C-alpha cells in the first residue's frame, strides 16, 4: 500500500569523491552495484547511468516519461499506455474502487471487472489522476518566511508561505493542481504543477485471488505469481482523454541484467532522519501502530468469518491492514537490527565530525542534532494524544473522516486561505470536495469496528482519567458511543454531505447530526494538541533540519537524492535476483509456476476462468520479475520502463529485504517486484477475452 | 494474572556493606525506604525488618504463616482462613473455575456464586492447592550432575538429577508433591515438599463486575475499587479438610504506614538476567507476544459482540488476554526506558569489574556473560520455531493441550522417570492426570479462534515455505485445518481422554482421533526444536549462569533474594501511597468511592444487589489498599498479613509503576494492591447475605 510498501536503491558511483556520499546516505555500502536513489527528474544522474549501463537518458527521453507518469491521489502511481487515456496501475491500487462499486450481488473484488466497452467503464469514487506539468524552485521565499517567524510561529509561517505560492501559481486554472514540496527536509522547496483528471474510470480489474495470489503469506516475498495489474481511463468532459504522449507497450519481457527504470511517486522515506528521530520511530511509533493494527486485524478476521457477505465487506480493509502490518513489521525489524542501527549512528557521527572540522560551517550549523533530540523528547509527552486525537482520529472510519472534513472545512473556509489549516487552503479544496461528494457505500459494521477500536484504544493509551478522554467519551463506553454515532448519523448519504459542505459553518452549527456534533465537540481539543506539537516540536525540528540540510549540501554537494515525498521520482536498476544466506533467487517467474503453486486452498486458489484457460496459455510466459530499482510504498503501479521508453511492467511490491528501505538501500538484497506486460497481454487475450483492450495496448507495441 | 501481574520490592538495609547489594539487585537505588525483596522463608531478613519497623519475625511466626500459605497450581496464591479448610484468594484466581461451572442458563462469572451450604460447594476442575511442608538443599547433587555432563547433555543431566530427587523424596506418599527448584539461576537447588489437596471446591465468588470493577481501563491502576476476592475450600475424602493452622481474620483495616507482609508465590522475575538476555526479551519475546495477544484480543472482542452467549463464552479468556497484554506492555515500556536499561547495564558492569578485580574469582568465573550472549544470539535463530511449535503450540486451545498431554504422556510413560521429558516424570503425573480427567466445558468457537490464530501466525512468522510449516499444514489453509480438527476430535469428552490416557502408547497409536493424529504427526518436529534449544542454548546458559551465581555469592554474600520461581516467598512493606510527577495518591479507597465511580456504563456498572445494598453499607469501610510490598504475578490471592499474623487482605494487583517489577523494584512508586478484610466481611453480611460464611471467618477474628 501507498504508505507502506517498502523498498529502496542507490547509484554505483564511479567518482571516488562521491563514494562517501553514497555511503553516508545508503544503508550498507557494498561498493559495487548499488542502484540506489529515488531521483527527481530535474536532477537525474544520467551520466552515472550512462557509465554504468551504457545508456544516459537525455532531456527529451526524461520529458516523455515524466509526461506519461501518473500520480493517483489514493496513494499510488501509474502510467498512460494508449492515446485514449488508458492507464496501467496495480490491482491493489484500484481495490478500494472495485470494493466501492460492488454490491452483495456483484463482488467486483472477488469476481474481477471487465468493461465490455467504454460505455461500461465506471467512475472510481474519490480518485484523481495527476501529471506533473512543471517544477519551479521556491526555496528562498519559504525559507525566508521560516527565518522571519517567531519561535512559536514557524510552522504557521511556513505553511502560509507554501499556501500562498500554491494559490498564486494555480489561480484561475481549473484543471491544474499546485503543491509545494519540501525536499531534503527543508533544504529545498519546489512548486509542482499538475494537470489533474478528476474523472477516472475503472476499465479492467482481475480477480483478487489472481492479482494477489498467495495472499498475505506471499506478500513481500519472491518468487511471486501475481497479476497485480489493472486499467483505468482518464476522462475529460465525459469523453476519454486524448493522450498523445504515452508509453508504448513492450510485447516481450526484459532480459536478465537489462537496464530498467521506474517512474513513480515513492511515498515517504526516513533516510535522512537523525538517530533521535529513528529511536522515536523504533520505540514508540512503530510498536504502537503495529499493536493497533494487530487488534484491528483480529477484529476484521473474526468479523469476516461470520458469513460470505461479511467476508466481502471486510476484504479490502483487511488486505490494507495486513499489508501495512507486514510492511511495518519489516521496518521495525530493520531498526532493531544492531548492524543497521549502528550504521545510521555512524553516518550521523561522520556528518557531525565533518561539520565540526570546518569552523565556519560549524558556527552556521550549531547543533541541530541536539535541538532535534530535545524536540523529540518533548514530543514523547504529546505523542499519544497527538496520535489518537489528531493524526489517527477516527481510525479508518469513513463516516468520521467525512464529519471531520465537513466540520473543519466549515470553520476554515471562513478564513483567508493562507491562515487556514493548510489541508483546507484554496488549492486543496477541490480534491477534498470531490472526496466528500463522491458516493461510496458505507458499511455500518466496518464503521462500528473502526470507531470502537479507535475509542477504546484512545481510552486505553491515554487512560480513563485523562481529561481529553473524559471529554471525548463522557460517561459513555466506547461501545455505547459507537452505536449511537453509527446508528444516528446521516452522513452516509452524499446528498446530506453536499448540503453540509455547501452550507458552510452555518450549516455545521445548525446540524443536529450526532456525528457532526461529536466531532465538533472535541475538535478544539484535537486542534490544541496539534498546535502544541507544531509549536513545540515541528517548529524547532523544521529549523534544525534546514541547518542539517545546508550542512549536508556544503559537505556532500547537491548530487544526492532527497527522501521520498510522494512526488515524481525516477529510479534506475537492472533485472536481477539476489543471493541471501547461500540461496539464490532467480529474477523471473512464469505462468507454469503459478499453476504449480495453485493448491486450491486459500490463498492459493485460482479463479475458475484461469483454470479453464490453462491450455490456451503459453506456460513459459514470464509473469513477475525482480529488479534492483530503489522504490518504496507509493511506487505501486509505477511503470517499469526500458531504455527505449517502453513500459514492460508495473511495480507492485518489494521483496522482504526491501522492508528496511525506509532507512536505506542494500543493493545486495533489496529488490522491487513487477508484473510483466507479456503476462498482462496474455491474460487479456486468453483468460478474459478482451481483444479490444489488448489491441488498444498493442496498437503501437514493439 | 499468574504469569503477568507485575510488581516488585527491596530491603532498606542499614548495613552499608549491603547497600551495594541492594543497588546491584534493585531497580533504582533511592537509598531510603526500599522494601525490596521476595524472600525465601529459610532466609528471611528478620533483623532488617526489626530494625526498620520494630518487629522482627521469629521462627514460630514464620512457620505459622508458611503453614497457612497456599499455592494454587492454576498460578495463584491463597491462604487458609478457618479451621475447616476455608481458603481466601482472588476472584480472578477462580474465574476459570466459575467459567467452567457455568452454562448458558447460569453464568457464574457474571452473576457470581454463593454456596448456600457446604453441600453446594462445587469442585473446581483441574485445581490443586499445595502447602509447603519442608525445604531441603540438594545443590550439590544437581550441580554435580551438571558438571559431569557432556556439553550437549547439560539439560538432560540436570533434569534427570532433579527428577531423581523428586521421585525419591515423595516415593509412596500419595498426598505429597515434590519439586526441585533452581534458585539464584542455578546458584542453589532446593527440594520443596508440599501437602497437596486435589479436591478444591468453590464456596463464594462475587460478580465479575464488582470483583473486576473498572475492567481493563482500571486494571493496574489506583485508586481502585475492586472486591477481587473469593473463597474455596480444601476437601479430604469428601469432607472439608481440618486445618487447625490458619490465619486469623482481622476485622479492621491496617493503619497508614503499618508494617504488612505478603506470603505467596511470585511467578517469575528477570532481575538477575544479563543484558544480552534482556535485549532478547525487549526486542523479540515481548514485542512478538504482544502482537499475538493483540490480534487474539481483537478476534475475541469481535466474537463477544455476536451476542450474549458469545460474550459469556469469551469473557474469561478475554480477561486473561487483556490482563496479560497490559502487564507485558508495562514490561516492554520498562525495558525501553533508557534510564532503567542503563541501570541494568551499570549493574552488570559493576559485577564484572568486581570479578575482574579478584584474580582467583576471575579465573574461576571466566566470561559467562559472553557465553550467554553467544547462546542468546544462537537462540535468535531458533526463537520463532521454538515459540510456535513447542512452548506456544496450540496457543490457548484446551483441546490441543489435552491432545499433546495424551500423545506425550503415552510416549514418555514407557521410559524410566528420569529419562522422560521432565513434565512427565512420576512426581508430575498425578496433577497432569487430574487436569486431563477433570470435566470442563469446551467451546468450539473459542477453540476455532485459538487454533486458527496459532496456525495462521505460525505460518506468518515461520513463512509459508518453511519445512516445519509445510509439515504442519500440508496443503491446507489454517482455517480448513482448524475446522477439521475442532469438528472431528472427540477429546472434549473426558471419558475419551481417560481411555486414551489409561491405554498409553498403544491407545494413542490405535486412535483415529483427528487431533491426536495431528499432534502425533508434528510431535517429532516440536521435540527436535526443543532439543536443539536445550542442547545449544539452555545448556551453555545453565553453566554460565551457575558461574555468575557463584561470583555473585562470592562478592555480595548470600544475603540477597533469588528471582521469583513460583515458590513460597515472604515480602515485607508498609501501607503507603506514592507521589509521581507532583501528584500524591493516598493508600486507601472505600465503598463511597466505589459508588461514586459507578456511572452505569461498562465497565463501571455495579450489580443490582450492590445498588440495592448501598443503604445497608457503611460507606466509609476501607475497600482497597496500596502497600510497598515487592510482589509479581503469581502473588495474586496472597494474604496481606499484619505483625500479629492476621490476614488483613488479599493481594490482587500492582500499580502501573510496578509493571517493570520483572527487572527491579523502585520503592518510590512500585506498589502492590490488596482488597481488605473489612470490605469482604461487609459484603458477605450486607450484600450477599452469607452470615454462616462470615461467621466462619470471624470465629476467631480480632
Indicate the CATH class of the domain at 16-128 and 198-271 and 562-698 in chain A. Mainly Beta
**At the third CATH level, what is the topology name of the domain at 16-128 and 198-271 and 562-698 in chain A?**
Thrombin, subunit H
Multimerization state: homodimer
Strand count of chain A: 20
Distance between the termini of chain A: 31 Å
- Give the helix level of chain A as a range of percent: 40-55%
The general outline of chain A is globular
Helices and strands, with pairings:
Two copies of one chain form a homodimer.
Chain A: H1 16-25, H2 46-53, H3 59-68, E1 69-72, E2 76-80, E3 86-89, H4 95-100, H5 108-111, E4 113-114, E5 122-123, E6 129-137, H6 139-148, H7 154-170, E7 176-183, E8 188-197, E9 199-205, H8 208-211, H9 215-218, E10 230-236, E11 239-240, E12 259-264, H10 275-304, H11 308-336, H12 338-356, H13 359-365, H14 368-391, H15 398-412, H16 426-437, H17 444-462, H18 467-473, H19 478-488, H20 494-510, H21 514-556, E13 569-574, E14 578-580, E15 583-585, E16 588-590, H22 591-597, H23 608-613, E17 622-627, E18 639-641, E19 647-654, E20 672-676, H24 677-687, H25 691-698
Antiparallel strand pairs in A: 1-2, 1-6, 2-3, 3-10, 4-9, 5-9, 6-8, 7-8, 9-10, 10-11, 12-13, 12-18, 14-15, 16-17, 17-20, 18-19, 19-20
